[in-house]
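Deliverable D4.2, example record:
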Amino acid sequence: MDDGDVITMSKRGQWVNRVVGGEELSQSFRSRDEAIDAGRSLATQLGSRHVVVDSEETGVITDEEIDDGT
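Output generated by the structure prediction step:
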């Protein structure tokens, strides 16, 4: 992947658009279709590639586990 490329993927139950080398432009979405549409549009604006990493939707959004030391 090159800087500016947009990657749409599932991450902990949400769909995210990650911009290589431009993390401040990254966004998250509730649905795959919404993320793909936005990712395609963002890649067009940036003049870069859009890649979708396929995975099944779980329907569950999870937070990272917090280790409280107990």
